[in-house]
């Protein structure tokens, strides 16, 4: 088992990509720590893991709050005596047309999607440094590597704030990799393309969801959206010793977006 007895914190881990990642880690023997803002979802996820005999715990954490991030890491280290893996997955979006966007659309997205990654990484670093070992995996987005046209079928449009934050995560990954590599800590990034999750569905109407799926079937090289299991397996790679000689990298998991190939 690739993660046997490793303590893994997954932010935004109670649903969507985070939950799929937690499932994949648990199957490889990890101790699961769900950090999220949805108390009900945290409790449900932790209960599900414990029913399967997985050691799991949950913490309410607003990653955009630096003090929250530091409290999370301190609590987990106190409970388990170590932190081996951090997956910075928590994220939000605000879609607003360019001419209409205000700081109310930008500030929350930058706070959670970019500053949250920094705060959690900053908070976990001392615990990983003390052990001279650790894996940090950041979740960016295909929109962080190449913006989608405003009129793409099924797109809610106005993705400037989200795309900018996710592009920032990619550069932050390389910066953190340089900062933490002397202490045996690797930092890598995954940039997902089209994966239908509760998060992505919540930003679109049902018709936009169907239009989005149809557009991807026609324009992606693989002619389909991805499954969360496929994405989680890549995150698992970066969290495990399979990637022990890889750091500062971003891997696009996007079905071959034809606008870049």
TrEMBL record:
<dbReference type="InterPro" id="IPR036291">
    <property type="entry name" value="NAD(P)-bd_dom_sf"/>
</dbReference>
<keyword id="KW-0560">Oxidoreductase</keyword>
<comment type="similarity">
    <text>Belongs to the short-chain dehydrogenases/reductases (SDR) family.</text>
</comment>
<feature type="domain" description="Ketoreductase">
    <location>
        <begin position="6"/>
        <end position="212"/>
    </location>
</feature>
<dbReference type="GO" id="GO:0047936">
    <property type="term" value="F:glucose 1-dehydrogenase [NAD(P)+] activity"/>
</dbReference>
<protein>
    <submittedName>
        <fullName>Glucose 1-dehydrogenase</fullName>
        <ecNumber>1.1.1.47</ecNumber>
    </submittedName>
</protein>
<dbReference type="InterPro" id="IPR057326">
    <property type="entry name" value="KR_dom"/>
</dbReference>
<dbReference type="GO" id="GO:0006633">
    <property type="term" value="P:fatty acid biosynthetic process"/>
</dbReference>
<dbReference type="GO" id="GO:0048038">
    <property type="term" value="F:quinone binding"/>
</dbReference>
<dbReference type="InterPro" id="IPR020904">
    <property type="entry name" value="Sc_DH/Rdtase_CS"/>
</dbReference>
<dbReference type="Pfam" id="PF13561">
    <property type="entry name" value="adh_short_C2"/>
</dbReference>
<dbReference type="InterPro" id="IPR002347">
    <property type="entry name" value="SDR_fam"/>
</dbReference>
């Amino acid at each position: 088992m690739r993660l046997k007895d490793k303590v893994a914190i997954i932010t935004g881990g109670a649903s969507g990509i985070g939950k799929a990642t937690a499932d994949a880690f648990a199957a490889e023997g990890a101790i699961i720590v769900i950090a999220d803002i949805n108390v009900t979802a945290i409790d449900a996820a932790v209960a599900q893991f414990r029913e399967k005999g997985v050691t799991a715990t949950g913490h309410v954490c607003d990653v955009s709050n630096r003090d929250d991030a530091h409290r999370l890491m301190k609590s987990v280290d106190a409970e388990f005596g170590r932190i081996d893996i951090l997956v910075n997955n928590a994220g939000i979006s605000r879609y607003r047309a360019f001419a209409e966007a205000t700081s109310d659309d930008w500030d929350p997205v930058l706070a959670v999607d970019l500053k949250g990654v920094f705060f959690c990484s900053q908070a976990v670093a001392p615990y990983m440094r003390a052990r001279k070992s650790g894996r940090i995996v950041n979740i960016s987005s295909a929109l962080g590597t190449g913006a989608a046209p405003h009129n793409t079928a099924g797109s809610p449009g106005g993705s400037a704030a989200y795309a900018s934050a996710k592009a920032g995560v990619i550069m932050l990954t390389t910066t953190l990799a340089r900062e933490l590599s002397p202490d045996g800590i690797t930092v890598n990034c995954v940039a997902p393309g089209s994966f239908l999750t509760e998060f992505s569905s919540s930003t679109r109407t049902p018709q936009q969801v169907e239009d989005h799926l149809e557009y991807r079937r026609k324009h992606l090289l693989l002619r389909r959206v991805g499954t969360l299991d496929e994405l989680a397996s890549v995150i698992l790679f970066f969290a495990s010793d399979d990637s022990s000689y890889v750091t500062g990298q971003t891997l696009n998991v996007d079905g071959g977006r034809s606008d870049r190939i």
